[in-house]
Amino acid sequence: MAGVAGPRMGQGAAGGDGDDSLYPIAVLIDELRNEDVQLRLNSIKKLSTIALALGVERTRTELLPFLTDTIYDEDEVLLALAEQLGNFTGLVGGPDFAHCLLPPLESLATVEETVVRDKAVESLRQISQEHTAVALEAHFVPLVKRLASGDWFTSRTSACGLFSVCYPRASNAVKAEIRQHFRSLCSDDTPMLQKAVGPKITLNDLIPAFQNLLKDCEAEVRAAAAHKVKELCENLPMEGRETIIMNQILPYIKELVSDTNQHVKSALASVIMGLSTILGKGNTIEHLLPLFLAQLKDECPEVRLNIISNLDCVNEVIGIRQLSQSLLPAIVELAEDAKWRVRLAIIEYMPLLAGQLGVEFFDEKLNSLCMAWLVDHVYAIREAATNGLVKLVQKFGKEWAQNTIVPKVLVMANDPNYLHRMTTLFCINALSEACGQEITTKQMLPVVLNMAGDQVANVRFNVAKSLQKIGPILDTDALQEEVKPVLQKLGQDEDVDVKYFAQEAISVLALA
Known about the structure:
By secondary structure, the chain is mainly α. Among the domains are: about 5-185, Leucine-rich Repeat Variant; about 410-510, Leucine-rich Repeat Variant, CATH 1.25.10.10. It is built from 30 helices and no strands. The protein is flat.
């Protein structure tokens, strides 16, 4: 981990509590605030090492409070954190201090993402066994009570998984309190069992309850209900389903489209397209299409992205052309969004979107976006854009690639920015197999060979790696007459990395 030297970490582990010089908590703060999710994830996965370096006292007094106050991250980071904390008892001083782990796990047990909550509950169940009976009643049972009486259904759901681990070890008086909380949750008004209760109760009781949830005063409740709209509609009895949706569900959906809370709108956008296959072409065009168009213009990028990510549903029913004029500005805005993960999401969806819109629309409206992503300042974007090009070639064919994509990629070989020149090589590596021998030999190979004289060593050793990658696609003459001399020259390069990768390519391609 950056900022933590191996020997110093070893001293911290061996020296017990350590001191302020062993591991500055500021390093972890910087890493967990980094834009790169992978870096934050790696930091969380190394928490046990950090705790060893800090020692048990600083872990309790600095690390755990910091983690408790900073639980606002991506779901994958929170999931890793919830898993790590379940094995942290020894790192905070043993069972006598196990209660120190409860605050961050309690926070994790209330988040919206189900897998994170489930992992937090699993870790809490594990830690509960390490509490003495006295500590259980003093620290763990109050946590369960707080979750059980929480305002958000997420906390109440988590409480359901914790009753069984504290009830057997509690005193009779505390058992009575736990039973009372359990009774309250048994009569909770958050519906989860539509299939179980059958069509009659669904129509008479669940639909009115669901309507109330869709207009609940709490945004979190409206968001949770909105997320279940498609699932509830799918499970309605076939006879009269369309009428029920049109009369009893759709009016509430229309209100949520312009909800004041972006999480509510985003939740609805993730499922609303699926209603088109349930309601059919006529109802989709008349009633749903205006809602889709409104959401494509929403100020929240997640709303626009969720609509675009589910276009395949509406494409099956009315065809995507109905949305094409509104799609373009939404796609462009997402493609240029300041948040790189938003840009990444639209890139990953682009091949499917292009297939639905057709090659002419793509070339005219979207091609330039794909090329711009190749020079994005974030590596993950450039990598995703490269992989996206391969899928586009597979969809639109080699001739399209030869005339439309390959020339634009090869132009970047002369870009002043060496990172962009390397992107050319990465694209060639990815595209060569999809484009085939002729295009690779006639168009791509000369560019790769010319880049062998690049002044930047990183470019030169990537030339060697590219020649190794595309070598099997080339014919024997090209390998012997064009590739071999260049690799032999690179094999004598002054840079050790260039020499290594050139010699490796010669060996792999059997050119020695």
